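Summary for the lay section of the report: proteins are chains of building blocks that fold into shapes. Here we show the chain for DUF2203 domain-containing protein and then a coded description of the shape we predicted for it.
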Amino acid sequence: MMMRYFTVKEANAVLPQIKVLVEEIVEKREEIYSLVSKYEELKELSEKSDLEELEYIYAKSKIQILDDEIKELVETIQNFGVMVKGVDPVLIDFPAKNGEEEILLCWKEDEDEIMYWHGLYEGFRGRKPISMLKPDKRSPFNFGL
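The coded shape description reads as follows.
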């Protein structure tokens, strides 16, 4: 399959659609965390009432359902041609080019737009501002924007 390369402008153009899906992931992630703490509390009770036992079973199965839903949302996001690198926080990499070099434009769930990039093997810690990208050859006044 041919890999799609995004310009910064193209990545920012699909970001609003991706953000809607990311908001769903964040909601489900928060729900999992509250269920996990409830689950942990119930798990520690050696003598559970029937109701507590049912709550425990419910929390356990609901966590699994939410986890599966998050995996589906991740797949949907990846169908845009991007890579989801994490869900807490949500980190997304857009394949791109800096001249001839393959790079990744990167976005984190609390950022308004694409502001950083890194090399293929640098990861999140290697993020650099997009102002450091080489100008896009296709447009002399356009820095990959």
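Put simply, here is one thing we learned. The radius of gyration is 20 Å.
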